[in-house]
DNA sequence: ACGATAATTAGATAAGCATCAAATTAGAAG
DNA sequence: CTTCTAATTTGATGCTTATCTAATTATCGT
């Protein structure tokens, strides 16, 4: 008896998922139909005027929100409503303290920041100044700028010489003002430039000693 | 005293809007904060770590769903929660008959179909075979195909001669297989082609007499 | 009239997602 | 094993929207 039990994750996360699950007219209609009696996928598709893949998709969303149960019977799958869960969740929507404690949805496009070998304070700099992989603004404060420049420098392999165009191409993926970034990298001696030829390479040992 | 009253629109429409309004963690947090006491925009922005425009946007969404009230006091605007409306809507979520009766959200990108001077049956052909302005498939059934071809023919001004490229360009806005459409238009004598030079023009009087 | 402050609107960007057609899986029944 | 059928998965497309910055509106105090 593989019965559903509340997921391990905390309830607050679930609450947003619950409302997202109901924030679609097709899914609301499915809830309505399942509330009257269990249905299989084909019946629902028929009643809703949608294709089976679409209904399948909606049922998967509802299942993630623990709102429907699934019972297999031969090749057909019979879905039924978890009225108890529905009522529970609706009750939670009136717990204002809980709502106020909700955590902003972590932005998946910022997840890479967690993989950086940095202090939490430095990671905050990234979260503040980046939108996904793009730098929103170049920080004015030198300490914050340096956090980002050091990370940028690591995009250049040690011992490799880059043409100015290559350097620009790499920097452009982060911010349109690649010239400014390049200049700052050189000024802070994270990148070195050969006098005449326009070749750049990464300075491996930061000369802060 | 401009007090809120239930909108004129039917409740079903409102129900989906209600869940959409709550299907966002920022708005759920706003509900939580307003549930404890009224707040102005700046306070909310502060508490949520969002900019004021963003909070303003969320409050507008909540207002459309009749979930918050607004009171102006000097230049600041004080928002408060409509707990009664919140409770009412939550109760509706358990009325399965009502949910099942919900109408699929009318697709705004299909609204142009209503402006066509056609029978309702013909309009249904458009709704079935179009996604927005793009034809999903070319209908197999001749009667349905003709409905669409007649409409297509009207995109060509009477008395004007079009090069094949011009014809293709017009048809391509509707379906990638412009060649098929062009051939069908000619076969059904909605478009005529000059024998050698590749010039096309619209046949004004359909020769069905 | 003039800043200064609070809020909204406009515009841009990027993520999310509803939907469909086509391809795939999996059970049932010959 | 093969074939049929129910359902899911995959991949693509286009709409919606959350968020930001910049610009605008509105109200107060001087």
Please state the overall shape of chain A, judged from the principal axes of the Cα atoms: elongated
* N-to-C series of helices and strands of chain A: HHEHHEEHHHEEHEHHEE
Multimeric state: homodimer
Largest interface: A-B, 34 and 35 residues
Total beta strand runs of chain A: 8
Largest sheet features of chain A: 3 strands, antiparallel
N-C termini distance of chain A: 65 Å
Discrete helix count of chain A: 10
Overall tally of domains of chain A: 2
Strand order of the largest sheet of chain A: 1-3-2
Low-confidence stretches of chain A: 1-12
User: What fraction, in percent, of the residue positions of chain A are helical?
Assistant: 40-55%
Mean pLDDT rating of chain A: 79
Helix vs. strand class of chain A: alpha+beta
Give the amount of beta strand of chain A, in percent.
Answer: 5-15%
Gyration radius of chain A, in Å: 27 Å
Give the structure's gist in a few sentences.
2 copies of one chain form a homodimer. Chain A is an alpha+beta fold. Chain A contains 10 helices and 8 strands.
